[in-house]
Amino acid sequence: MLHIHTESVDSATHTETLFTHLECPACGLTYSADVVRTVCEDVNCLSSLFARYDLSSGFSKESLKGRAATMWRYKEFLPVVETENIVTLGEGFTPIIPLLNLKHMAGSNEVLWKDEAGNPTGSFKARGIGAAVSKAKELGITTIVTPTAGNAGGALAAFAARAGIKAVVYMPKLTPQVFKDECRLYGAELIEVDGNISDCGKLANEQATANGWFQVSTLKEPYRLEGKKTMGYEIAEQLNWQLPDVILYPTGGGTGLIGIWKAFDEMEQLGWIGNERPRMVAVQSESCNGIVQAFHGEQVSSAFVDGGFTIANGLRVPKPYADKIILKVLRDSEGTALSVPDAQMSEALKEIARNEGMLIAPEGAALWQAFKYLKATGWIKEQEQVLLLNTGSGYKYLENIEIS
Ligand SMILES: *Cc1c(COP(=O)(O)O)cnc(C)c1O
Ligand SMILES: [Zn+2]
């Protein structure tokens, strides 16, 4: 499928968004959306907040036809009110690419990659950050800060540059150089932290509180989720409104997994799809697999797990803020969770590169390994259609990949 960057938004003043308010999915409290919000304000709750829309309007999926090939084609279900506040670099509407030369390894299963590598700044973080920066601009925010394992920092730096907002990024020192260089090139202030993303999060929080900056940490800000959910809309639209049987997702903070699931709910309420759902699979790095442990240990939340460095830096999230929601999605979908060691990710990355011509991120490569395992154990059944999300470009990770 072509990924054409045409005029990204139409010229109307209002986006005609159907966005109405924010809601806490845990305790049900609702919040107005015309001021800056973070998480649920009930101190016993503190859940991530979800954007809610008027889904009873009868908005038809036929109206999408002919719209620009970016995530803003779903603008009715994104939170920006004024068109001039949309900050876009053409993110979204990425291609779905079927497995070709490795098809024999998939047997009767159809395996599809949704390839996010072509997004601005080389990862699907452009979707979440694009939505968050746009809404931040609409709410008058002038300085925005995030802790990051790498890709979110670059995306924030780029979208903030375009929006004319100052960006401050906290990133672990052990991240490949290119992730740092891109932040600086886009004009962000980059602080390298001797530690993991949780340490970055603590520092970002202290400085944000002291200086009055707005934080867009994963799922402590409501709109990154909205950008990432557009993957769910695209999967449905690109597969002609017939969802796959299984979706594998490389899980760090879980935004994409939760977002895709939220999109399916919204589309069902819109009458665009039925009530059938894919089984959702969280794939993690063996060194940082708190969700996998909690899922199989029948826990409702995850413990802090950090086994140190992984080449899949996007997966080094010791305790996702929305761990409970991630685990609930896995269970509601009758999915599962598993982890992959670095050496296997590296091998899978090379296998896909050599045979399929795609240089995918180690996070994406983990899914290919997970697919082979789930197929071998029979968890993935004959004939099932399986979608793997390659969340980023492998080009940014090469300093940690041994070329042999
Ligand atoms: C951030 C990131 C992830 C994890 O995404 P979450 O939505 O936080 O789970 C996976 N892959 C890549 C390439 C990333 O940058
Ligand atoms: Zn709440």
From TrEMBL:
Reported cofactor(s): pyridoxal 5'-phosphate
Example GO molecular function: L-serine ammonia-lyase activity
Record-given protein name: Threonine synthase
Residue positions, PTM N6-(pyridoxal phosphate)lysine: 125
Family: Belongs to the threonine synthase family.
Matching Pfam families: PALP
Domain Tryptophan synthase beta chain-like PALP: 87-392
Membrane among keywords: no
Enzyme Commission number, as recorded: 4.2.3.1
Domain of life: Bacteria
Keywords on record: Amino-acid biosynthesis, Lyase, Pyridoxal phosphate, Threonine biosynthesis
One BP annotation, GO: L-threonine catabolic process
PANTHER family named among the record's database cross-references: L-THREONINE DEHYDRATASE CATABOLIC TDCB, THREONINE DEHYDRATASE, MITOCHONDRIAL-RELATED
Pathway membership, UniProt: Amino-acid biosynthesis; L-threonine biosynthesis; L-threonine from L-aspartate: step 5/5
